[in-house]
Design goal:
alpha+beta, binds zinc ion, 3 domains, 32% helix, globular, 14 strands
């Protein structure tokens, strides 16, 4: 299990005494007040292989691990947390403080800005069921907010119909909540007539047969060209970016390149984060996450069979990037990546890292 106490993070297994516990200095950590699990932590140390420390082999909940700005972080996967701790979800791990969190929440549930200020004040005073404040127990960072839709929309135990009406009319429901007068039942507003559905003229859409024919002809035209297009040429053209030198430092022995989409989309820091984040750090995060996953796979004994050595091998992994967000506060975006290891121009093994949906 993972525990945070006195600004240290502990990884240990209560059931297996032969597994040596490890601990590191913890910079920031949030614990769920309901299930007591670590929702997120940032610590000084190394990425820990969590498997030996999980009491349940089925891994009822799951963490994403990564490196960022010289430290390590772990994040509990929201979706799994919902299962383990019914109804409670983290509004946002990156938009901290009540104001930023409620801003994110309101956008997600398409609630207008009216009354949000008052709602924030009430949440700060712990007067709104369904919204919980979680402080950073290391005291380094701002608080995060947990949301439970069921708890929020069932204030004063309404009947089922009213609770549904509240969920469907959240903006009006917030009016009612912040008014403070809950003696009258919540009345949903009368809905305006929905507008006519827009007709799409059939003639403008290509038929399935057309699309198939087009795909077929482009295959014929480009098929051979792609086949003879060498990796060296792709690097020269900027379609691939050679990162072999940095990869070596991260312990990767093969020549390594990343695709332009990954390079431009994530490794080059977005304009608003320049000066805060650098390219080397973001590339380093990708390479160390690959390295960590490749080692974990090797440990699990998924070794390349001798007969498959000349075919392509794909490893999927995730990396978290700090990205700008509309609320003006950087958000952490988990990006699915894959690494393809295959024969290079001279049949040597080479590694290409790209977005998971790239070919
Ligand atoms: Zn929980």
């Amino acid at each position: 299990m993972i525990e945070v106490k006195n600004n240290r993070i502990y990884f240990h297994n209560m059931n297996k005494r032969d597994i040596i516990p490890v601990d590191f200095q913890c910079v920031s950590a949030y614990l769920c007040p309901h299930c007591k699990k670590v929702l997120a932590a940032y610590y000084a140390g190394k990425i820990v292989d969590l498997e030996p420390f999980m009491e349940e082999p089925a891994l009822k909940y799951h963490y994403t691990l990564g490196t960022s700005n010289g430290g390590q972080y772990l994040l509990l996967d929201d979706h799994n947390h919902k299962k383990g701790c019914p109804g409670w979800e983290v509004v946002s791990l990156s938009a901290r403080s009540i104001t930023y969190s409620i801003d994110v929440w309101a956008r997600r549930y398409e609630v207008g800005p009216e009354n949000l200020q008052k709602l924030c004040e009430m949440i700060a005073a712990s007067k709104v069921p369904g919204f919980d404040i979680v402080q950073d127990i290391c005291g380094a960072d701002d608080l995060i907010v947990l949301y439970n839709e069921h708890a929020f929309t069932n204030l004063n135990n309404p009947d089922f119909r009213e609770s549904c009406a509240r969920r469907e009319n959240l903006a009006a429901y917030i009016d009612w909540v912040v008014s403070g007068d809950h003696s009258k039942p919540f009345e949903p507003p009368i809905k305006p007539k929905t507008s006519e559905p827009v007709d799409v003229p059939e003639g403008d859409l290509p038929s399935l047969a057309d699309i198939k024919a087009r795909e077929q002809s482009s295959k014929e035209v480009f098929g051979d060209v792609i086949y003879v297009y060498t990796r060296a040429q792709a690097i020269e053209d900027g379609v691939l970016v050679d990162v072999t030198q940095t990869a070596k430092e991260a312990g990767i022995v093969y020549p390594t390149a990343v695709t332009q989409a990954l390079w431009d989309g994530y490794i080059v820091p977005p304009e608003s984060l320049k000066g805060i984040q650098d390219m080397d750090g973001r590339l380093w995060d990708v390479l160390t996450m690959f390295s960590f996953n490749a080692r974990a796979m090797k440990k699990a004994n998924i070794d390349v069979a001798e007969s498959q050595k000349d075919t392509k091998q794909t490893l999927y992994f995730k990396t978290i990037f700090q990205m700008p967000s509309k609320v003006g506060y950087p958000k952490m975006e988990t990006v699915d990546l894959k690494a393809v290891c295959g024969p290079g121009d001279n049949a040597e093994p080479v590694l290409t890292i790209m977005l998971a949906d790239e070919n």
